[in-house]
Write a structure and sequence with these properties.
Elements lengths: L3 H17 L18 H10 L30 E2 L3 E2 L2 H9 L1 H4 L12 H11 L52
Helix pairs in contact: 2-5, 3-5
């Protein structure tokens, strides 16, 4: 059997694989990406509905309000309205009718349709998304001693006196 057809098949397969690794669009789904939405249209809707009267919003002309929270770097916020996880599943209904989700909120219902709320949410999630880090590479504070593995456990305490509290209650002495 000749090796020439085998080499030809290997060449075709490897070239096909290299072409597949080229500049194909990224098919990974971002947790902040909203289907059927246009962030630029959302920016226009934010301006049209006057959201900037209450909020400071980057990229929206005249949006310098101080009544509601600043929406700067919105994609990095963990909570929506201080009590809901900041996800599209919560943000879209919040934009449509915030009073239904939190009756004590100061944010009025503006009458956004679901499609409009999707566009607005898409724009808000572009704010600060360039610096979005879901899982930081290192813990913010050292949680272990240098050179010690995380699974290493300290030796068990030898006697019960090590478990007694090391603080004393200070009681003022009675005056005579």
């Amino acid at each position: 059997m000749s090796t020439r057809p085998f080499i030809l098949i290997l060449t075709i397969v490897s070239l096909t694989g290299v072409a597949a690794c080229g500049d194909a669009p990224d098919d990974r789904v971002s947790p902040l990406r909203i289907m059927d939405s246009d962030p630029e249209q959302g920016r226009s809707l934010i301006q049209a509905f006057g959201c900037g009267a209450c909020h400071t919003i980057d990229g929206v002309r005249g949006a310098r309000g101080k009544v509601g929270p600043e929406l700067r770097d919105y994609a990095q916020q963990h909570l929506l309205a201080g009590f809901l996880p900041n996800t599209p599943q919560h943000l879209i209904p919040w934009l449509m009718d915030p009073v239904a989700l939190k009756p004590t909120t100061g944010m009025p219902a503006q009458g956004l349709t679901e499609a409009e709320a999707r566009h607005v949410a898409a724009y808000l999630y572009t704010l600060g998304s360039a610096d979005l880090r879901v899982y930081p590479p290192d813990p913010p504070i050292p949680l272990q001693e240098p050179g010690k593995a995380v699974t290493d456990l300290d030796a068990p305490m030898a006697n019960a006196s090590e478990t007694t509290p090391r603080t004393r209650r200070i009681v003022p002495e009675p005056k005579s």
